[in-house]
Every structure is written in C-alpha cells, then in structure tokens.
Amino acid sequence: MTGDRVLVTGGAGFLGALVCAELLDAGARVRVLDALAHGQDDVAGGLAGAGVEVHTGDIRDEQARGRALRDVDAVVHLAAIVGDPACAADPATADARQPSRRHLIDDAAQAGCCAVFAPPARLRPHGRPGLPVDETAELRPVSLYAEQKVEVERRLLDQGDRTPPATCLRFATIYGVAPRMRFDLTVNEFTRDLWADRDLEIFGEQFWRPYLHVADAARAVRIVLAAPEESVIGEVFNVGRSDENYTKRDLVEAIARQIPTGRVHYVHRDEDPRDYRVAFEKVRDTLGFVPRRRVPDGIAEVAEALAAGRFPDPFDVRHRNTV
Question: What is the rounded CA–CA span in Å between residue 115 and residue 139?
C-alpha cells in the first residue's frame, strides 16, 4: 500500500476519518471526497493538516467524482446517508443518491481502480432463530438503506466489464469515539443517556446485534487494501468478532457495571426484523483480523470522553445523522 493513492468517499465521517488515519499510517497517499453534510469542517481541517488531500463535494456531482478519482489506485466507498432512520427520514434524497453509487462504480472501473465497499447490509437470519449467520446467508434487506446497500454489493460482485475489482465489507454495528462523533449509535447513545442521568427507553431488550469498535473497522479496511488480491477480490467479509454479539439488555447491563446513574425502562416487542447474530470466522481465518476492542472498552472510552468534556453538548444534532 505504501505510495498508493487511495480515495476515501465520506472520509470526514464517523468511520472515514479513522480510515484515513490508518491509511496514512500505512504510507498511502490519501484523498477524500466528502460533502461535509454534518458540518465536519473541523474534521476536514484536521485531515488536511495531517496530509490528506481533501475535496469538498458530493459523489452525485460528476465533475467532483472525476477530479477525486484522477490517478487513484483504490477507492474506499463510505459516502452515504448512513442508517435506517436517516434514510427513512429522507427517502427521496436516499433514492437520488443511488444512481451516483452506480456511476462511482463505473467511473472507478474506467479509472482502473480497485474498490472496497463498506456500508453494511442488514441481514435477517435465514434458518433457526438465534443461530449466527455467515457470509453465505441469504440477504433479506428490511429497509430502504439495506436494499440500496445490497443492490450495490451485488453489482460489485458481478465482476462485469464495468465493475472494478472489489471487496465488500459488512461491518457489525459500530460504536466508539471518533473525530466526527455520533451519539445515534446504540452503544454510544445508551452510554451517553445513562451517563447524563437520563431515562433510557429500550424497545425489544431480547433482540441481538453484533458490535464493532470504529477504530477496528478502520483497521479492517487497511488490512483488506494490504492483502494479496487473490485473498480479497470478489469476496464478502463480515467484520467483527463472534463473541461480540449482544442483546440490548446485555448492553445495558454492561453499561450499568461502569455507570451507576440513569434509569432504564424496557418496552417489550415480539419481533424485530434486525434481530440477528453474525459469525465472523471468515475474516479471522482469511485475513487474520481480530478486533482489539470489546464493547466494555468502548463504554469506558465514551464515558471518559464525556467526563473530560470533549463533547460539550452530546445531545447536539451534529452528533447524529437525523434531526
């Protein structure tokens, strides 16, 4: 990877800024294309100061895409309206972005780049409830957000003439502290609310979800880009660790062991289409990737950042993807 030029779309985002840091550390020349839709001018400034070539622009803009793709060796595509609630809140904009992803794929192929596609797809387990699912499980998108990610993933894996050599990463639900902080992610949100001595209402405490620290997610991108092509091209990897699947009740209990404040109210739900456990053996066995941080580490990190005043108003709308 040393000397390679890598474009990171959404590079000033929650995950993107840490991906840029990982790639810089690996010796890559990093370029970012980001619309800065959440006011991350300070994050963009920090990236530029670290040596990242920052382009402010939207992937829907053909000229911005063309400039950003010029002379790059690889593309890490993170730019998106991220998350089910954000897409549901503005489905028209989410729909409008989908053609630009197809154009980005076509443009990357024409430019001779390889690609890492990272926004996750929501899975609903196929088979017995509660059993972990691996990369071979049937994809069952349960939202507009998921449908869009599945469509792009399938197009990338088709490996046609207009498709760049690509690897698809399905991240577990991300948490942790990052330059562009988000408090609308489950671990971060629950930790913030209890730290702030708020009432926390939990819907469906028995439902499962896998979790992954944002810094580990960024490291996974670096590992994929540095791996031999025969190990990663045309492959899908679940990114996480198998013993980091938690129910919402598990999360609350883990937070309560560190934070004694706040009050929790459980609201029973019989079904949640995003109730699933995931197996992560493939990424471990193929790439040697094992997350270094666990959910309790992330809880402590978020609580310490809050106590230190790193986020003067953790309830500010800047720290979430929906208003």
Answer: 21
> Using one digit for the tens of pLDDT, what is the confidence trace for 232-265?
999 999 999 999 999 999 999 999 999 999 999 9
Q: 252 and 203 in contact (C-beta within 8 Å)?
A: no
116 contacts 221 by C-beta, under 8 angstroms: yes
Give the predicted TM-score (pTM) of the model.
Answer: 0.91
Q: Give CA–CA dist 283/237, Å, rounded.
A: 6
Torsion sign across C-alpha atoms 65, 68, 72, 73: negative
Across the chain, where does the E strand assignment appear? 5-9, 29-34, 53-56, 74-77, 114-117, 166-171, 173-175, 199-203, 208-213, 236-239, 245-247, 263-267
Amino acid residing at 214: V
Check: CB of residue 210 under 8 Å from CB of residue 244.
Answer: yes
Spatial CB neighbours of 321, under 8 Å, sequence gap ≥ 6: 38, 81, 82, 83, 85, 86, 182, 184
Residues 6+ apart with CB under 8 A from 49: none
